[in-house]
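Hello,

Our lab assistant flagged a job as stuck in the queue for most of the afternoon. It eventually completed. Since we weren't sure the result was trustworthy after the delay, we are filing this so someone can double-check. Below is the sequence as submitted and the structure that was eventually returned. Let us know if re-running is recommended.
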Amino acid sequence: MQIIDNVNATLKTDLQENIKKGSKIAIAAACFSIYAYQELKKQLEGIEELRFIFTSPTFIPEKTPKAQREFYIPRISRERSLYGTEFEVRLRNELTQKAIAKECADWIRRKVTFKSNITQERMMGFMTVDETSYMPIDGFTTVELGCERGNNAFFSVQKTENYENAGYFLNLFEQLWNDKKKLQEVTDVVIENITAAYRENAPEYIYFFTLYNIFHEFLDDISEDELPNEATGFKESKIWGMLYNFQRDAVLAIISKLEKFNGCILADSVGLGKTFTALAVIKYYENRNKSVLVLCPKKLSENWNTYKGNYINNPIAEDRLRYDVLYHTDLSRDHGQSNGIDLDRLNWGNYDLVVIDESHNFRNGGEVSGEDAKENRYLKLLNKVVRAGVRTKVLMLSATPVNNRFIDLKNQLALAYEGDAEQINKKLATTKSIDEIFRQAQKAFNAWIKLPAERRTTDALLRMLDFDFFELLDSVTIARSRKHIEKYYNTADIGKFPERLPPISLHPCLTDLSDVINYNDIYTLLMSLNLAIYTPSNYIMPSRLTKYLDVTHHKGTSLTQQGREEGIRRLMSINLLKRLESSVYSFRLTIDRIKKLIEDTVSTINSYQSGGCVLNLTELSDSEDFDYDDQNTDFFSVGKKVKIDLGDMDYVSWKRELETDAENLELLSLMVADITPKHDTKLQTLFDLIQKKMERPINPGNRKIIIFTAFSDTADYLYINVSHFAKEKFGLETAEITGTVDGKTTIPKLRADLNTVLSCFSPVSKGKAVLLPGSTDELDILIATDCISEGQNLQDCDYLINYDIHWNPVRIIQRFGRIDRIGSKNEHIQLVNFWPDMDLDEYINLKSRVETRMKISVMTSTGDDDLINAEEKGDLEYRRAQLKRLQEEVVDIEDMTSGISIMDLGLNEFRLDLLEYMKQHDDIETAPKGLHAVVAQMEDSPAGVIFVLKNINDSVNIDNRNRIHPFYMVYISEESEIVCDYLNPKKLLDTMRLLCRGKSEPVMELCKQFNQETDDGRNMGDVSELLSEAINSVIDAKEESDIDSLFQSGGTTALLSAVSGLDDFELICFLVVK
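-- returned structure --
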């Protein structure tokens, strides 16, 4: 008898001496590894036979259903140990698994029989070689052979060469071997499993194998409640059938987020059909008998009403949706009717789901104002709808959820967790609270915006943001850009986006009259206006102020009467500039309205003798003067009309200021009086454009044009002039749509409501054939304000003109999104922008002068148009760059907003991809690690290897930078350059998905080429080299960030973790890019 301690003497050397040609071997053990075969390959080749019993049930069909299998996990690891146990990881990293598996399978076919214990009885492990016995033997692996340490404190084997002992074990083995009740033969299954390690794999399989490894915990976490329940039958609905594949993905993801986190923001880019996606979600909940409210801007109500109504032009009428539609503004109303609903009696708290369209209107959060501490719409929504009554889920739709502060996003999300951060902190898998996450994200963003332009890249921002921030976005937002859809979805069934021609930028001067002024003269005069008419509170005598204090300042509110007046004055001042840019006609109208207001006030002051006159402050001259965004600011809804007694005012000074303004306004009015339509260069330029388009259409036969302007006055002016010109010259029909009144059209007897006008203008996308069967009326030119700049699909048209440049560049993109849509029938689309007649830099400086002159500290407007303001927004340079880009190209909205785009950050679609795959396949669970596939390179994906690794001692990610820890993905080129490092898993998974999509069979020519280069996997030196480079890149990046953290507040990560190299990682799989 001899003890082999596996330290001084190893079992491997003993067996090398004892196994002779023609030996017979019998082994009973828990597992078998191909690496153990490799260690003894030379000796095992010569034996006569090897019989192997798995001492616990292995590789046999399972009788127990999956749910009750307690021993399931250990068993999978027993079966997987064929390809090496966890202690043989290092060997697997040598990448020769494929070659070894091939030789081993071949040897098994000739020499080996496997049987498995099928009872729950325990069996002890032992081995006999001819007449020598060894025991105990746990498994046939390199650890038992003494080649690897494993996690054993000691592992000694007793060897007995005495014939009787060996005979005892042999008899025992024979008895077991022939007992059919206890054992079942599994040789074929073992061979099949080993061949899995050297089969050629389909690229798609490797992609899903990667997802399975990274996200399988997600599969375990999924509770049936959070996943869309197919039983509701919503997948049989009409709306589901109409969705594109990327929209279906979003629907499922939204439902699971609503179930888990109670809220979700859908921020897909303009033109990707958010409305339809939301309708499918509504259908799901209505099928579960929930009540749904849609809150939308008034201008979009027509759309929402159509989809639920029993109308002929409702494509989904058979789904019988029954949600209520109300407007954002209704939140501030307590009584009256809105959209057929009686607001007095409405039970706001009884909605299970609220869908908020254009939810960015709520991004400024809650505040109270006015004498009676009136809540703004945000608070009303939070208190009346979300907190009150039943538990309400919130789905928000917006292409621009973030304007320039992350807080915008937080305010919208807060609706979902009822403003109580605790509710969501419990559900998030983050280390920090949601408030802390946003605070840090904003800090990172502020630092990023200060970087010099060439370093201020999205990539740089991604690196500065915290892991938790991505985790949060991943949990509650879905955002895909148009590029993303084009790249990662099969767009064959969707149709493609039309090609955008470079935008045409025009800078017409004011007029062709020789002695008339230009923009700059007018600007100079505008700057001298005081507009005191809007700020009477400033002239109340200090001794009398107390009388008005309670009126002008209410505790706990943020907008005082004085602040409000300042706000209106500031808006008006900027507004005059905007209206001048829009059209001389609008500018004159406003000047004359202000002048009249001043004259009336002055005459009131003049007729005042002995203090008996109370000045009724008229509300703003007319909100008509303002563009769509400005009309939505709070000045128009907050506070009451204030009465000021003239006796309490320094009315002499006030009157002096008013008279100066009146003179200047008179002068301005005279300056532009001569500019009639005939001499209005801008209008004449527009006529030229229309003429060119008719003579040379950009798509054959397409005569349609949309003209956008910010002001309804300009729209009226254009309609009068353009409709006449177009009809007379080309026989074109024109229509005008502004938010305030019904539209106008040149077609007699045609109803001019929004629906009819849009259907006649864009008959295909609006389903005109159904709505107006037999009608031949068709409109060619549509003049509109921003009341249709969001949420409308007008893709029949291919030519869009911005008659005035909106101060918020996002608006320009949103307008263009009406025709720049997925599935358009047009090959090309054209954007035309009219700019003021001056140099861009001059223009921007001018805007900032007006802004800063009017910047008043009391102001708390929503700041929607206040885009140029150096303190908050970084620098003018950035805005200048944006406007410059708009002159040269059509920009996507996600490229436009100041670098904050929540696109391309979430990993959710990969989870859903995996989920879908797992419904049809379960072969991934038992697949060996270390597999690979070969794919062809693409333009952004050079030849090289993408490695998927797993950190096995939990030491790398202490600082939370890698979102998929403990998994690490690295893409390295054949030249050992890192193409994409482990800190950007989203990009790597996207790349992998792109490379592998649709390739459900191995790419055989590439596999052959790779096998020749590596001698069928025996010589993997080059790939091995790349693997260690890849691992070093993880460790280097880790050390670099450790060193950075030494110099940061909040502690260092440098001392917390030691990653020493290859042995700390296990190779999950790799994708060879050829």
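-- support follow-up --
The delay was a queue issue, not a problem with the job. The result is valid. The first helix runs from residue 11 to 18. The chain is about 40% helix and 15% strand.
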